[in-house]
Automatic annotation (TrEMBL):
Residues 640-719 form the S1 motif domain. SUPFAM superfamilies: Nucleic acid-binding proteins (SSF50249). Residues 729-788, 860-871 have a biased composition (Basic and acidic residues). Residues 61-83, 715-920 are annotated as: Disordered. Belongs to the RNR ribonuclease family. RNase R subfamily. Residues 794-809 have a biased composition (Low complexity). It catalyses: Exonucleolytic cleavage in the 3'- to 5'-direction to yield nucleoside 5'-phosphates. It is an enzyme of class 3 (hydrolase). It comes from Stigmatella aurantiaca. This is Ribonuclease R. The keyword Nucleus does not apply. Keywords: Cytoplasm, Exonuclease, Hydrolase, Nuclease, RNA-binding. GO terms for cellular component: cytosol. GO terms for molecular function: exoribonuclease II activity; RNA binding.
Length: 920
């Protein structure tokens, strides 16, 4: 009887090391013949994610290493062992990868291709770290969480029961094996649900999964957009258990819910929502009224925690996503649409549960008092930014004119709040954002800048005020929470930026440090300057990125002592978490908790803060990649056109330009302006040997050279810089120590030069350089028929061309003959591919002519020996042993080979033939 999956899991849990198949057979008491069934059970458990496979061994995942997103209630993350690091893996298209620490601090860890191939891009992994700081290298220990669940690729039918899906994402190695399906045809784009679970991958086995749906034929932009989102771990669908919980939520608020949890009834208060034209989830409503010498501001936020309770599948999935992703053609929500666009959305004229921040400000917009409480509300109007701005500008908007007093009070309060924040040193970069305007058929029509109007600032100031008030409450009550942290910028980076600003004519003093108030004053100087946007971006890059943390430090950019996110629980998990912590505090009614409970709570919150920060960065990357993809789609048919542009950034491999009208960005490579360009990091400029400098903010005219939608990149060539034409660069001269490419036609050997230890040395010609050309490499001529190097061959004795009485040459040479181009047969010119064959062919032709001649004589005629000669030789032979006699005394007629005494012997050869040696 085969063991069940639970029994196998128990055996693996009890073991102190991963077990192989034979060990499991022995521990389970199975017969060796049951090994096949055991392997099948193990394979199914691995695919289901119940156990993990490491090489040829199996183990269970330890609970302390489970990520916060996959734990019930988001429990604390296990600390890494010494020498280990937990982070997110990013795989390069060339196979290697880097692990970025979850905390965002410290050096990235390099993974060679052999290690990076054992996990997927964007997996949360644990690695063993080796090496030294600055050159850290890691070995994969385990996969903590498999972020990627879906893949987009091309369906290819193959023989047998399985088909293959070639992924669009280049970071995935090899095709994905899937069962054949009727949902797609060969060549269709499909959505694949991976079945590899969270185990370490086997490079030989490859990826496998199942087709989850068809996306149509290739060329559909929406499929490419989904591929980008899937690559960062975001999905457009929810697990079945999550959808089941969402379906059980009622469509409306009941009176019992409205009266529960000590809620205040705000349905009589004229709250309004102000959002974008295409918004569907309305999570905040505002109301303002004068009170004494100041204002009262009510900010009501959707109460998502009433429907997403701790421990539910809805909550676990929301933590895994941590944020909604807003794309030009769709939204990938954090919560199912039944909640985000339904019961949690503050629709007009519908009762909704809410969490309220009720604040009172003085005439200078300083917070005097605040109150936080749950409530029930009913929005009176769903307004858009354009409508509010039109009313504020004095235009006639029939269905919104009655709200003009409300808009004007909100505007006055927002201006006072903004002035107060700027007075304490808040930095307002005011960087414009780009948005893609889509057409009716799903194709992009144009790219335009997203304009910030007074109506946008109005809502921003109200939300900032509510976030600060809630953060102050947690700080005053000394409650653990998830704060929004923005630290002070690095002094070295700021010093580099100050040097750059001075080159542009701006002063940024750093004598006694640099406060946010000083930076805000500097940003104010840039208003209206041509380089305003470029310098603002460079300053922003020199500052730290805001993250979530369980530690309250403050927000440098906002110059706020206390700050967190409270106002968007539909699309941000930290906001939902803050709501839950508020309710938990109200339930305890001020009861104090032990230090141990507080410490555990902070560990749990820190793990969820890290998860939220990482998912926020991933969402920003998706949005940026999608905009770049749509930009290449807009420009792919405009190759060769010229555009006015502005230099937006400079790197060591070129500079990026933004087109003034189309608002898309592309690259001009360094070599486009000539050789020798280098990056001056201090002045952030590209400097050339002829004195030309490329700086951010510089005006230019460029021509579009190439567009790649796969790499999402556009290349330009410069035509004008500062209204001056750009001369075409000359080819870069070859340096004397660089190796030259060998030509196909062999030439006289040339010495290669190279540098060793700072000294130039000479190298002998290589074997390839000094070889003789083949007939295909060099044209043949009559002179080329005769080989330059003579090889020793065995030659037959041929009749001489000269008369017998002529003196024989000291060394035999073939007769010189002009080849007969029209001849055939033996007299035809040699056309062999090897010179040695030509020699043999020439000798054979000579032998053929000699055979046809009436004279057949030895090649080297000699005089016939006389009878006296043979008599002397016979006498010498008959002499006694050990005595030498004169030839004249030797008896004749006794020698072998003498006339009448035998056959004459042939003359002896002068030397023995040795292959490879010339005859002497």
């Amino acid at each position: 009887m085969n063991p069940t999956s639970e029994q196998i899991k128990q055996l693996l849990s009890d073991a102190d090391h991963p077990l192989g198949v034979k060990e499991l057979l022995r521990l389970a008491g199975l017969h060796p013949g049951q090994q096949t069934e055991l392997k099948r059970t193990l394979r199914e458990m691995v695919r289901g994610g119940q156990i993990l496979k490491e090489g040829k061994r199996f183990r269970v995942e330890e609970p302390r290493h489970v990520s916060a997103a996959s734990r019930p209630h988001g429990g604390p993350r296990g600390h890494e062992a010494p020498g280990q690091l937990e982070g997110v893996l990013h795989v390069h298209r060339d196979g290697y990868g880097f692990v970025h620490p979850l905390s965002g601090e410290g050096d990235n860890v390099f993974l060679p291709p052999s290690e990076a191939a054992r996990a997927l891009d964007n997996d949360r992994v644990l690695v063993e770290v080796m090496g030294r700081p600055g050159r850290l290298e890691g070995r994969l220990v385990r996969v903590m969480e498999r972020r990627r669940q879906l893949v987009v690729g091309t369906y290819e039918e193959r023989g047998g029961r399985h088909a293959a899906v070639v992924p669009l994402d280049a970071s995935l190695q090899g095709p994905i094996r899937v069962p054949r399906t009727q949902m797609a045809r060969d060549g269709d784009l499909v959505k694949v649900r991976l079945g590899v679970g969270s185990q370490i991958l086997d490079a030989e086995e490859g990826l496998f999964g199942e087709v989850a749906g068809s996306l149509g034929k290739r060329g559909d932009p929406s499929a490419e957009v989904l591929s980008i989102a899937y690559g960062q771990g975001f999905n457009d669908e929810f697990p079945p258990e999550v959808m089941d919980e969402a379906d059980r939520v009622g469509p409306a608020v009941s009176e019992e819910e409205a009266r529960g949890e000590s809620r205040k009834d705000l349905r009589a208060l004229p709250l309004i929502t102000i959002d974008g034209e295409d918004a569907r989830d309305f999570d905040d409503a505002v109301y303002a009224e004068p009170q004494g010498n100041g204002w009262r501001l009510v900010v009501a936020i959707a109460d998502v925690t009433h429907y997403v309770r701790e421990g539910m599948a809805l909550d676990a999935e929301a933590l895994r996503r941590a944020t909604s992703v807003y794309l030009p053609d769709r939204v990938l929500p954090m919560l199912p649409e039944r909640l985000s666009n339904g019961i949690c959305s503050l629709r007009p004229e519908e009762d909704r549960l809410c969490m309220v921040a009720d604040m009172v400000f003085d005439a200078r917009a300083h917070l005097r008092s605040y109150e936080l409480y749950p409530g029930v509300m009913r929005s009176v109007a769903r307004c858009t930014y354009n409508e509010v701005q039109a009313v504020l500008d004095g235009e006639d908007v029939p269905h919104r004119n009655h709200l003009r007093p409300q808009f004007e009070r909100l505007l006055a309060l927002s201006r006072a709040l903004r002035k107060m924040r700027q007075g304490r040193g808040a930095i307002d970069f005011d960087l414009p954002e780009h948005k893609v305007v889509m057409g009716e058929e799903g194709q992009p029509e144009r790219m335009e800048k997203r304009e910030r109007k007074e109506s946008h600032r109005l809502i921003e100031e109200c939300m900032l005020a509510a976030n600060e008030a809630v953060a102050k409450f947690f700080q005053d009550e000394e409650l653990p929470s998830v704060y929004r942290f923005h630290g002070e910028p690095d002094e070295q980076k700021l010093a580099s930026f100050a040097t750059l600003a001075q080159a542009y004519g701006f002063k940024l003093r750093m004598d006694d440090g640099l406060s946010s108030k000083d930076l805000n004053a500097f940003v104010s100087q840039l208003e209206g300057h041509p380089e305003q946007r470029a310098l603002n971006q460079l300053l922003l890059r020199s500052m730290m990125q805001a993250v979530y943390s369980s530690t309250q430090v403050g927000h440098y950019g906002l110059a706020a002592e206390h700050y967190l996110h409270f106002t968007s629980p539909i699309r941000r998990y930290p906001d939902l978490l803050v709501h839950r912590l508020l309710k938990a505090h109200w339930v305890r009614r001020g009861k104090q908790r032990s230090a141990v409970m507080v410490e555990r709570e902070e560990e749990r919150l820190e793990a969820m803060a890290e998860q939220s920060s990482e998912r926020e960065r991933a969402a920003m990357l998706v949005e940026r990649e999608v905009i770049s993809f749509y930009a290449t789609l807009l420009m792919k048919d405009r190759v060769g056109e010229e555009f006015d542009a502005t230099v937006s950034s400079v790197t060591d491999f070129g500079f990026f330009v933004e087109l003034d009208t189309e608002h898309v960005e592309g690259l001009v490579k360094t070599d486009a302006l000539g050789f020798g360009g280098r990056l001056d990091k201090l002045l952030h400029a590209l400097v050339y040997p002829d004195g030309r400098r490329i700086r951010v903010g510089q005006k230019c005219r460029v021509r579009l050279v190439s567009v790649s939608t796969e790499r999402r990149q556009m290349d330009f060539e410069p035509l004008e810089l500062d209204s001056q034409p750009v001369t075409r660069p000359e080819p870069r001269p070859r340096r004397p120590w660089e190796r030259e490419e060998l030509p196909h036609v062999a030439e006289p050997p040339r010495h290669r030069r190279f540098v060793r230890e700072g000294q130039r040395e000479e190298a002998a010609p290589s074997r390839f350089e000094k070889r003789r050309p083949t007939p295909r490499e060099a044209p043949r001529s009559p002179a080329a028929e005769e080989p330059r190097r003579r090889r020793f061959v065995v030659r037959p004795a041929l009749a001489p061309e000269t008369p017998p009485e002529a003196e024989a040459p000291s060394r035999w040479q073939p007769p010189a003959r002009e080849p007969d181009e029209g001849a055939s047969g033996p007299d035809a010119p040699a056309k062999s591919p090897h010179p040695g064959f030509d020699r043999i062919r020439a000798l054979a032709a000579q032998s053929h002519r000699a055979a046809q001649s009436p004279r057949m004589a030895p090649a080297h005629p000699r005089e016939e020996p006389s009878p006296e000669h043979w008599a002397q030789r016979s006498a010498r032979k008959a002499a006694p042993s050990g005595k030498k006699t004169q030839r004249s005394e030797a008896p004749a007629g006794k020698r072998k080979g003498a006339p009448g005494g035998g056959k004459p012997s042939a003359p002896k050869a002068r030397g023995k033939f040795k292959p490879g040696r010339r005859s002497r």
